[in-house]
Design goal:
18% strand; Rossmann fold; three-stranded parallel β-sheet; seven-stranded mixed β-sheet; 12 helices; 410 residues; alpha/beta; 15 strands
Length: 410
């Protein structure tokens, strides 16, 4: 009986102890509200280089651009360039205790889709915006940015309205600047004296560049002998425009248009034995991919105004181009360089301002920093004015054997 009694007593003590630990509930898995969870004893915690887990340790950057559709080459390049910069910055330890996280949404170069993408990014914690890749989509996004008051730095939205609000900045040249720089470059380098233009009159980007090119051409002594237009309803057959240009005696054809339409024009120009030089702006970037390997000879000698040439031999470009090729098995274009520079511009603004996400004045400090920084980027040494515009130099590349080569005056 004594043994039985002792055993029963021991069992009751065990049950009482168990009840005291659980207090009638399941075992807690996290610290109670208002207390701090104990520090981990894991000797090798995750570094959090790309996805830091603690609130306030990361800066969420949101980008938007066409990742599918006719203009995907632009969005994909911006995204990949930005990804490379984020990776480099995080591997170097981040900025002011922060690491970067990049979120990127597809808008197919459509304004309504871009606004929906922006709202999704805001729902997912976006703190700084890369706006949108193409101008029309970017203008629509700026309306949302203005409401939220966050810093926006579009890599490639070139239409003037892309930076119409105080918190909006850009990396690329404006449409007017591209037209002015192109005409000046052609005249300064004596590339041609008689020029023709093919432009998309249904597209604001194309109209803006064309108008300024024609005006500047008159100033610098270029003769515009033919202006040929098309619309988004007639963007595949250019036989009429090319015949008119052939009859005009033009030595150079200026193309302030996108790569898809340029691919049609160049292929048809080759078939028509038109020997004029073709010269474009940033929208022409990607034409090699659009025209395809079977027709790549039609791009031979095509020139485009750009702030970036992948074959340049400065240390920064060489390193970027090698890393980009290794990561994506492709040669970077100016859109990739724009995306890369946009991320490093955000880094510079953080360093200048000392701003921390979550602070009440974070957005105000980041915007103020933009006019106080200088960024030595892939696309040039840049400063910004309060109207969101960058100051930097332009150059040109020539397509030779299916690759971009920096232009060298003869």
């Amino acid at each position: 009986m004594k043994k039985i009694f002792a055993l029963a007593l021991a069992l009751m003590m065990v049950l009482a102890a168990f009840a005291g630990c659980t207090n009638g509930t399941t075992e807690p898995t996290e610290a109670p509200t208002g207390t701090e969870a104990p520090a981990t004893t894991d000797p090798t915690p995750d570094s959090g280089a790309s996805e830091p887990s603690a609130e306030g340790e990361k800066l969420v950057i949101g980008g938007i651009g066409p990742l599918t559709g006719d203009y995907a080459t632009y969005g994909v390049s911006v995204k990949q360039g930005a990804e490379m910069a984020v990776k480099e910055i995080n591997e170097a330890g981040g900025v002011n205790g922060l690491t970067f996280e990049l979120l990127f949404e597809d808008d197919q170069a459509d304004a309504e889709m871009a606004v929906n993408a922006y709202n999704k990014l805001m729902d997912n914690g976006m703190q700084v915006s890369l706006g949108a890749t193409t101008s029309g989509a970017c203008i629509a996004v700026t309306e949302e940015v203005q409401k939220d008051g966050i810093l926006m730095i579009t890599p490639s939205g070139s239409q003037k309205e892309c930076v119409q609000y105080d918190t909006c900045f850009r990396i690329c040249f404006t449409d007017p600047d591209q037209g002015n720089y192109a005409a000046q470059f052609i005249a300064d380098n004596k590339i041609a004296t008689k020029v023709a233009v093919i432009y998309d009159k249904s597209n604001d980007y194309s109209n803006g560049i064309k108008d300024n090119f024609v005006a500047k051409a008159a100033e610098v002594g270029l003769e515009v002998v033919s202006e040929q237009a098309f619309t988004d309803q007639s963007r595949t057959d250019f036989s009429v425009q090319l015949q008119a240009i052939a009859s005009s005696g033009a030595e150079l054809v200026f193309l302030p248009i996108y790569a898809q339409e340029a691919a049609y024009i160049l292929t048809q120009a080759q078939s028509a034995n038109i020997s004029a030089i073709f010269f474009g702006c940033d929208g022409l970037d990607g034409v090699i991919e659009k025209i395809g390997a079977d027709n790549v000879s039609a791009t031979e000698g095509v020139m485009l105004l750009t702030p970036f040439a992948a074959d340049a031999q400065d240390e920064q470009t060489v390193a970027f181009t090698a890393a980009y090729k290794a990561a994506y098995n492709a040669t970077p274009d100016q859109f990739a360089a724009d995306g890369y520079d946009a991320i490093y511009t955000i880094k510079a603004a953080l360093e200048q301002s000392g701003a921390k996400p979550g602070d009440a004045d974070f957005n105000e400090k980041m915007v103020a920093a933009m006019t106080a920084i200088t960024v030595d980027g892939l696309t040039g040494t840049m400063t910004w004015s309060a109207d969101g515009e960058p100051t930097k130099s332009a150059t040109a590349v020539v397509i030779k054997d299916g690759a971009y080569v920096a232009y060298a005056a003869e």
